[in-house]
Amino acid sequence: MFQQQLVNHLPYLMALDKSKDLESIGHYLSEHLKVAGGYWTINAIACLNKIDQISEEKKQQLSQWLKQCQNEDGGFGGNTNHDSHITNTHYAILLSFLLGCELNYEEAAKYVAARQRKDGSFEGDKWGEVDARFSYCGLSSLTLLNKRDLIDVKKAANYIKKCRNFDGSFGGIPDAESHGAYVFCCVGTLYLCEDLSFNIDELAMWIHERQTSKGGLNGRPEKLADVCYSWWMYSALCLLKREQWINQQALENYILECQDSDGGIADRPNNQSDVFHTFFGLAALSLLNGDKYQLNPIDPAFALPKSILINIPGASRFIQS
Amino acid sequence: MHGQSKSKAETLSEEEIKLRAEKGQQILESLDYFFKVRKNQVNQPEDQLAFSELMAKLCPEIATIYNYRREVLQTKFDHLGTLLSESKSFEAYKQLLKLIQSEFMLITILLKQHPKSYTLWTHRQWMVLRSQEIDQLITQINQDNQFKLIEAIKQEYELCSKMLDRDERNFHVWNYRNWLSSICAFGKEDEFTKKKIEQNFSNFSAYHFRSKYFMKNYNQSENIIERIKTEQILGLIPLPFNILKEETELIQQAIYIQPKEHGVYLYHRWLVGVIQPFGFTKVEKASNNSIILQFNRAVNNVENSFELFNNENALKIIDIRVEGINVIISFEEQQLLNLKIKIINQIYQYGSRETMMSEDEFSRFLVPSEINITFNNDGFQFTNKIQKEFIDAINQIHNYLDDNLGFIKQVIEEEKQNRFPYIQILYLLQFKLRTQKLIDASKSNEIIQEALQHCEQLKKIQNDHQAQFLYEFWSQF
């Protein structure tokens, strides 16, 4: 039954760009999320091993549009005409690898590197917001582009370590509360910085405690479970080689419960699906039990299919076997 | 995206679908126009602020709109600032204040609908920084500054309080509030976090920020050395012991009221474990060119913590290596008569003002002592002399641990099927084992046996990875 349902997700994903989703005002308000949306959609299709179902013409169209999202400063906005931001630059780079198109990587790398501050942190754009998400975007982008020499990797790691809290887990900035999504950003960054010198068992224990009675993971104590945390934290456990520290079968079952019978995966059971949760649900399943569901494994450090990563020289020494 | 129930999904009439499509089209057209304005492909609207305000209300999540708005605001701030410095124009002064006030009001309105928007909070932070600059400018020109940044910041704290009343776990608000204290330390963090905890013992965000408050506040205290000497506390945070005990009582209350929650045990565990001595337990090995000293727990960064003497003559240390709980000290080979080792508490000894330490520096708080090793035909014997005030401190900590163990055992009595107090007791017993090794190592085995019993109980309740992990830890002895 579950196998059938997984195949349902392909038509849902393929239709995403066609539908103007006239019933939802949300569609029009997410204009700034087009690059991110493109990444989640194509990556989900790749995870289902169906990327060949996207026509060459479509790929060309998307590639052309993606290139137009690059600005003069080398960074990318969330859509054409939008101002540059490190997150959208990172999404654009990832999407370009999925589509097999080339962007002006030289300029993109310069933009990303310019976001690092003296204390090792990364800002999102020239307006100065700082956050561990941007550190992750920075390390991942520059590693993939083989431009790590443009930044101070050691300082980047030191900044992230300041985000560690009394409970053994990580927040988004120093002093911020520990949070499941930031566990991904911080562990991912430290992994790419090749510096995992913190108390891993303490963190793994904190993640263990995030598993709720229904099998899903929540982001913080006393919060609701959400399918996206399956990816944020299970991928981190994979990088830390502590996959068995949660009940994997229970998590797997929870993700399957979150499937929407109309296609796609929702944040929790009986809710409406969206592309974001569809991607993260599938990605987590690919790590939990990829073979069973015939999923293309998504690498826990880069959040790209391994099949694509092996062709990226910068990534090779970081790919999880 | 999050939390959209399927059963509540609306089925819209054709009329409604048409209206939505029209509204959607309007949004797209407005955005189109906005980007043309942004790229100067059309004339700038007469009132750029009004225009960008409209756009922000239409599409509150689009960062580029706020980027544009900030550019417009900055231009106005610069222009008015110049007018103010050059001509001390009262009109310019009034306009600056009005601009600032209305911007904060706009962001507040938008935050009501989007309280978790990174974009909005970043914009608000930017406004606070600009307000700070303008406040400085005004004060330079006119000492009698009516703007008074501090009043504005007080209002910001008010906003945070109101928003946390609505959603006590909103981390954007907590982070913003925390950031405000770097602008103007007005926060009364102690009172505020305590109030939030008393309002709801499940508020983990409050415990988290309380832990930060303790870490920062006591670490920055001037008389840290005096504290260590007089209050005889050994450890990472020289929290006055009476404050620590009060805080522990607060969290015990929380556990008593909400025993099925994870967060309260975490905070309790941290408090109880926050002062734990690192101390020498025995000489593992001694030869004429090296000694191995064993400690009650794993140590590191102790390279400067030892002085060696052979028959009162200072010995040059060649190498110090740490392997878990063992420290291997090598020196020049020689005949040993009476070997004396002084263990130095680096913080106590050198009066270090470096109080914000990273985890791997904790063991610089070694219990200072003097070890004497005498050699004979059968091998060696050793004695260890610890200053009374440190022995008293260790005993105080040990008693404090026993009190807390007693408390958790009470919780177990009430909550026999709850795995949390069992997990908690297994951690607390780890702490107790460490101090026990310093007081009387021969009684260590009782603690280990007790722990193993609790491990068995835990496995019966829920034999998951955590139970396995803790069982493996206690089985190693």
From TrEMBL, chain A:
Residues 28-303 form the Prenyltransferase alpha-alpha toroid domain. Binds 1 zinc ion per subunit. InterPro entries: PGGT1B-like (IPR045089), Prenyltrans (IPR001330), Ptb1 (IPR026873). Its cofactor is Zn(2+). It comes from the Eukaryota. Keywords: Metal-binding, Prenyltransferase, Repeat, Transferase, Zinc. It catalyses: geranylgeranyl diphosphate + L-cysteinyl-[protein] = S-geranylgeranyl-L-cysteinyl-[protein] + diphosphate. Its EC number is 2.5.1.60. The keyword DNA damage does not apply. One of its GO terms (cellular component) is Rab-protein geranylgeranyltransferase complex. Pfam families: Prenyltrans. GO terms for biological process: protein localization to membrane. GO terms for molecular function: metal ion binding; Rab geranylgeranyltransferase activity. It is an enzyme of class 2 (transferase). Belongs to the protein prenyltransferase subunit beta family. Heterodimer of an alpha and a beta subunit. Catalyzes the transfer of a geranylgeranyl moiety from geranylgeranyl diphosphate to both cysteines of proteins with the C-terminal sequence -XXCC, -XCXC and -CCXX. This is Geranylgeranyl transferase type-2 subunit beta.
TrEMBL record, chain B:
Pfam families: PPTA. InterPro entries: Prenyl_trans_a. GO terms for molecular function: Rab geranylgeranyltransferase activity. It catalyses: geranylgeranyl diphosphate + L-cysteinyl-[protein] = S-geranylgeranyl-L-cysteinyl-[protein] + diphosphate. Its EC number is 2.5.1.60. Keywords: Prenyltransferase, Repeat, Transferase. It comes from the Eukaryota. Coiled coil: none annotated. GO terms for biological process: prenylation. It is an enzyme of class 2 (transferase). GO terms for cellular component: Rab-protein geranylgeranyltransferase complex. PROSITE patterns: PFTA (PS51147). Belongs to the protein prenyltransferase subunit alpha family. Catalyzes the transfer of a geranyl-geranyl moiety from geranyl-geranyl pyrophosphate to cysteines occuring in specific C-terminal amino acid sequences. This is Geranylgeranyl transferase type-2 subunit alpha.
